[in-house]
Amino acid sequence: MHDLSIKNKTMNGSRYRSNGSDSKDTIFKVVLLGCPGVGKTALTVRFLTKRFIGEYCPTLESIYKYRTNFDDDEVKMEILDTAGQMEEGWKDGYALWGDCFVFVYSITDKDSFDEIINIKRQVENVRHSTAISGILVGNKSDLLHDRQVPVNHGMELADEIGCKFYEVSAADWTQVSVISDMFQDLFRECRRAKNAREGRQRKASSSVRFKQAIQKVISGKAPARRTLSA
């Protein structure tokens, strides 16, 4: 089962905050980040619709609400396809909104590759954490004659920033399953991180309650035990 809806926004009218008020259901929020023209929209559309469209409005950002089944579980995802040019404030909003991230560069554009490390660091700085769930994607692998970024450089960068690495082509219809697997792997990583985070929060909450109970006993506020007389 697949269910998809799309909401488009212009660059000038959007702000993102993670307020948790969307639904009682768990929604995994995915953000695609990268320089203009690297194929963020093409990758998203290829994953969601299996189609390829080569031309997009560079100042339009879209939120795709998607429901499907992964690993026998129903999954609800919101995928934010960010606009090309972004001011610093917008990047901060994206970093706070997302649960996991797709860092995209074009293998035909060395500058887009070099910018990934800066984008990743900004996400870490905004979230005050280096534990960021994400994947690194080198797009346009069909344009081998224009390659500027070797495969091994992509692999090395992925190791450096702690992400899985994929080199794909959104334009190549034979890679539909590869791109689908890529997003499924991202979901699994996001789910694992969320479960671990929630587990730590539950453990911390239990620890606080235990300490409060001990403090009551020490201060003499705990109820006295009742004894049975013969």
Overall description:
This protein is an alpha/beta fold and 230 residues long. It has one domain: 3-Layer(aba) Sandwich (Rossmann fold), CATH 3.40.50. The protein is built from five helices and seven strands. The chain has a seven-stranded mixed sheet, sandwiched between helices. Strand 5, helix 3 and strand 6 form a beta-alpha-beta unit. Helix 1 crosses helix 5 and helix 2 packs across helix 3. The longest helix has 43 residues. It is elongated and about 80 Å long. It catalyses: GTP + H2O = GDP + phosphate + H(+). InterPro entries: P-loop_NTPase, Ras-related_GTPase, Small_GTP-bd, Small_GTPase. Belongs to the small GTPase superfamily. Ras family. Its EC number is 3.6.5.2. One of its GO terms (molecular function) is GTP binding.
Question: How are the SSEs ordered, and which strands pair?
Answer:
Blueprint: E1 3-10, E2 27-33, H1 40-49, E3 60-70, E4 73-81, H2 88-97, E5 100-106, H3 110-127, E6 134-139, H4 151-161, E7 164-167, H5 176-218
Parallel strand pairs: 2-4, 2-5, 5-6, 6-7
Antiparallel strand pairs: 1-3, 3-4
* Total strands: 7
**Oligomeric organization of the protein chains:** single chain
**Structural class by SSE content:** alpha/beta
How much of the sequence lies in strands comes to 15-25%
Secondary-structure element string:
EEHEEHEHEHEH
Distance between the termini: 67 Å
Shape: elongated
Number of helices: 5
CATH architecture: 3-Layer(aba) Sandwich
- CA radius of gyration is 22 Å
How is the CATH topology named?
Rossmann fold
What is the total domain count? Answer: 1
CATH class: Alpha Beta
Helical percentage: 40-55%
Low-confidence stretches: 9-23
